Amino acid sequence: MLLSFGFVAGSYLAAWDSIRPLGSASVLGPWREALAEASWVALTALLLLTGYVNNTRGVALNRALPYGYLAALAGCVILGVGFVAQRYWVVALGDHPGLDQLFSPPRLLEVAAAGVIVVAPLRSALARRQAVASFPVLISAGLLLSVLTFMTQFAHPAIDVLSARHQDPVVSPRWVGQDLGVIAICFQALLAGQVCLVLLRSFRLPFGGLTLVLAVNGALISFLKFHLEYVPVYLATGLVADIFVHYLRPGRGQPVVFRLFCAAIPTTFAGAILLAVQLTGGIGGTPRSLSGPSSSRACWAGCRAMWPSLSRRALRTRSRGLGRPAPWSATR
Q: Which of 146, 153, 177 is nearest to 277 (CA)?
């Protein structure tokens, strides 16, 4: 877990050194990816050593590592291939900043492998049907969310503050920047909400668990351009989610509360982001901008949460009309 965190943090550190004004010198120079690569080497060696020791004790190779960690070892190998391929890619086509670097095939391979690596504790806990989300599981979920936001940093309100009155960067015409800013807020609210829902449906969450998940992601993503004023946004969103879980206990037995929970996370995230923008420089729009993204995310999350039950109800009604048993009856 610690090595996985070091790897993801090292990747964000390398990205921070890459995201700099044109013409400015690199701060870290050739050591830009040192932390990420050192964590990768240590993690690969640890997994190999653990598998070797277990195999010498008579454990079969396919069971030498816990469920999820064998895939993590394969991810480490693929990540190494991506590191080597990225070097040759830069030599052949040059080192271009921005999305050209983020979306290069070797970089996409690295990000996919990183997702498999960091999710290993979460997959292992799911396979064991672990009842309570432990600290490694929560950190794993936070790192998984961080890998997703790393890959989608081009549409993140904590990277490019396009919804602010003084846009950074400036987009012309202005309404294009406002549209992109709202899209970024809604998209990242969706990602955060989905990860929280996976944890809610799979584990019994301790109070503060979702706050820890979102705090890990908020600290890493806010570091990229030193927009540290957005860290409280993640803390507030996680606190609201934890209060919902601890006091209202959303679940299958309380569908209304569960739907409210689905709407509360993205709504709180969007509202807190817009409030932070307003407090730090002002929103570049009318007061309707304060409620638009939050309301749209609440409506979308509520409809999405209600869709499975509405579908089951429609199927049951149609089945009764045809005189056949409902298709969902076996799973209820």
A: 177
pLDDT in tens, 46-75: 999 999 999 999 888 888 999 999 999 999
In this structure, are residues 213 and 241 in contact, taking their beta carbons and an 8 Å threshold? no
* Token pair 């549409």: residue: 155
Which residues are CB-contacts of 6 (< 8 A; sequence separation ≥ 6)? 35, 36, 38, 39, 42
252-261 per-position pLDDT tens digit: 778 888 888 8
Q: Phi first, then psi: what are they for 283, rounded to 5°? A: -85, 135
DSSP 133: -
The verdict on whether omega for the bond into residue 169 sits within 30 degrees of 0, i.e. cis, is yes
Integer Cα distance of 191 and 40 in angstroms: 26
Q: Which distant-in-sequence residues (6+ apart) come within 8 Å of 303 by Cβ?
A: none
CA distances from residue 294 to 107, 183, 265 in whole angstroms, order as listed: 33, 12, 10
Which of 196, 167, 198 lies closest to 184, judged by CA?
Answer: 167
pLDDT at 49: 95
Rounded to two decimals, the pTM is 0.81
Amino acid at 243: I
Is the pLDDT at 22 greater than 80? The verdict is: no
8 A C-beta contact, residue 127 and residue 68? yes
Q: Please, what is the Cα angle at 161 between 155 and 166, to 5 degrees?
A: 145
C-alpha span between 244 and 317 (Å, rounded): 33
8 A C-beta contact, residue 284 and residue 257: no
pLDDT for the residue numbered 278: 81
